[in-house]
Design goal:
The chain is α/β, with parallel strands linked by helices. It has four helices and five strands; from the N terminus they run βββαβαβαα. Helix 3 crosses helix 4.
């Protein structure tokens, strides 16, 4: 697997969780949560990309449990297309059907309420997407 940092986005109508890996893709860490409606969203993303200098970008693809695309899938694909318009870095869609559910469960088990942890859930979901993507990459 090529050395270099990777970044993942968990797109949502309200918030976008962001996570990044280290250069060796061993550790994935939550980075931030962005507001989807923020007028300076693209500027904030561009600044993050400039700071992280990723070699790959992953965006969670929230298919229905059946595997079929839904409204959320279309929005995530549109977000990935926006990213492709502001960077030449490879943008890859990654199946994330259960990432948010898993992140919420893990935080709940750690004693944090979902209401108080919305930003944490989105960042944790982005970490899950990134870990899954890196694992897939290492298997190739």
């Amino acid at each position: 697997m090529q050395r270099g940092r990777r970044i993942a986005f968990d797109y949502g109508d309200v918030r976008i969780g962001v996570a990044a890996s280290d250069a060796d893709s061993i550790i994935c860490s939550p980075l931030t949560t962005l507001k989807s409606s923020d007028k300076s969203l693209l500027k904030s993303i561009a600044e993050i990309l400039l700071e992280i200098q990723p070699i790959q970008i992953f965006v969670g693809r929230p298919a229905l449990l059946s595997g079929k695309d839904g409204v959320a899938t279309d929005k995530a694909v549109a977000f990935a297309d926006v990213l492709r318009g502001i960077t030449e870095i490879e943008v890859i869609m990654i199946d994330e059907r259960l990432s948010t559910v898993s992140a919420a469960r893990n935080l709940r088990e750690a004693g944090k309420s979902a209401k108080d942890s919305k930003d944490s859930i989105d960042m944790a979901a982005a970490v899950g997407i990134l870990e899954f993507a890196i694992d897939l990459g290492k298997r190739k």
